[in-house]
Design brief:
This protein is an alpha/beta fold. It is built from ten helices and 15 strands. It has two domains: 115 residues, 2-Layer Sandwich (ornithine cyclodeaminase, domain 1); 173 residues, Rossmann fold, CATH 3.40.50.
Length: 311
């Protein structure tokens, strides 16, 4: 079985290749059983374990195990740790062990960009990122693969974290600044991308400008939320998969508040990638994309890593 460490996994996942790979995967038939979710309690520490399998007609089977511990930030540790094993779907023979953290972070950012490819305005250039974790750090590069992003702001509940990430992005060539006034930053942004583990809303609907695109990719359980119910009022809402309607606290809150009806969700990524829905209708439409992640995305990314290593 071949081993792909973090560097080897990362090198194969450039967004100009990964975003199209996800688009192709969502347009094809892939078997994605429901994820297994378990709560882990160790003393006063609590975390969540997800087990996410998927297999494709291309002949690959993948299983990701991902551990999410929100309290790790206080320890100076990432909140997410994952491993990924790729198998031959015809025989069950293990092919490779890959760095699941890189798989998860890159496919999450790529799915965010894929959603924006259909839903952000064509002239969108101002990106606001909420969060400073592994996924958040990738969002400018991901979105720049589908839109002409030339201004980036980052906000975090720990201001020093936002300042540090903005400085890192500037060193990488981005026009990046830390945002201290979240409301003002949201009002000015063309794309607001939330990649946090928040359990209380961060973005308010009254702040969102006409024509803006709200991207919610951090929360993935009913207890987590990044946007208040007003964010969905008057907006066209899209999801990565139908599972989002049962897993996302943002959507569940909006449904309970009456600002979003279940049958008002416009389309999934599969619908968009199969041209069943055209995405954004006009320049003034306000769009929301809610993603909880899919094993299909992991498998597409892992397949890309595997194929890149073949002679």
């Amino acid at each position: 079985m071949k081993q792909f460490d973090a560097d080897a996994t990362r090198r194969a996942l450039a967004f100009d290749r990964l975003v199209p790979a996800l688009r192709a995967a969502f347009a094809e038939d892939t078997q994605v059983p429901p994820r297994h979710v378990h709560t882990v309690e160790a003393g006063t520490d609590r975390g969540t374990v997800l087990i996410m399998p998927a297999w494709s007609e291309a002949g690959y089977l993948g299983i990701k195990t991902i551990n999410i511990f929100p309290g790790n930030g206080a320890r100076g540790l990432p909140g997410l740790h994952a491993t990924y094993v790729l198998y031959d779907a015809h025989t069950g023979v293990p092919l490779a062990m890959m760095d699941g953290n890189e798989i998860t972070a890159h496919r999450t950012a790529a799915a965010s960009a894929l959603g924006a490819a259909f839903l952000a305005r064509q002239d969108a250039r101002r990106l606001l990122v909420l969060g400073t974790g592994r996924v958040a750090r990738l969002l400018p590069a991901a979105h720049a693969s589908v839109r002409e992003i030339d201004q980036v702001q980052v906000w975090n509940h720990r201001p020093e974290g936002a300042e540090a990430l903005a400085a890192q992005w500037r060193n990488e060539g981005w026009n990046a600044q830390a945002a201290t006034d979240l409301e003002a930053a949201v009002r000015e942004a063309d794309v607001v991308s939330c990649a946090t583990l928040a359990t209380a809303p961060l973005v308010k609907g009254e702040w969102l400008a006409p024509g803006s695109h709200l991207d919610l990719i951090g929360s993935f359980t009913p207890q987590m939320r990044e946007a208040d119910p007003a964010c969905f009022a008057g907006a066209s809402t899209f999801v990565d998969t139908e599972e989002a309607l049962t897993k996302a606290g943002d959507l569940l809150d909006a449904i309970a508040a009456g600002t979003l009806a279940r049958d008002a969700v416009q389309a999934t990524l599969s619908d968009l990638c199969r041209s069943r829905h055209g995405g954004r209708a006009n320049a003034t439409e306000r769009t929301v994309f809610k993603a909880v992640g899919s094993a299909l995305e992991d498998l597409a990314a892992a397949t890309l890593v595997w194929r890149a290593a073949q002679p």
